[in-house]
Amino acid sequence: MSGVWVFKNGVVRLVENPGAEPLDGSRQGSSSNVRRKVLVHVPTNEVITSYEDLEIKLLSLGWERYYNDPDLLQFHKQSTVHLISLPKDFNRFKSIHMYDIVVKNRNMFEVRDM
């Protein structure tokens, strides 16, 4: 992983391709040379295209859904201290969220360029 670390509103995040994503976090118009990231469920080689798909995969891996925060989708695994927090809107699901899922579910998910 390479890129630029950006600090904004008290949050630090990694911008993997600084030319493709503005530093203010806003979305640019689609560009043909910009590769977007996708989350892939490795055992089935399935690209995760919705939170419904992701929830099915996570529940099968022992994750439980938390309903504490109405603005987030959260999952917790009882045997660990891990918590996955995702924006409620799938359109705001970015590579930082994908990598969080990959790290907490080794060998089950990958982030790939599309």
From TrEMBL:
Domain of life assignment: Eukaryota
InterPro entries, sorted: FPF1
Family statement drawn from the similarity comment of this UniProt entry: Belongs to the FPF1 family.
PANTHER family: FLOWERING-PROMOTING FACTOR 1-LIKE PROTEIN 1
Listed name of the protein: Flowering-promoting factor 1-like protein 3
Species: Hibiscus sabdariffa
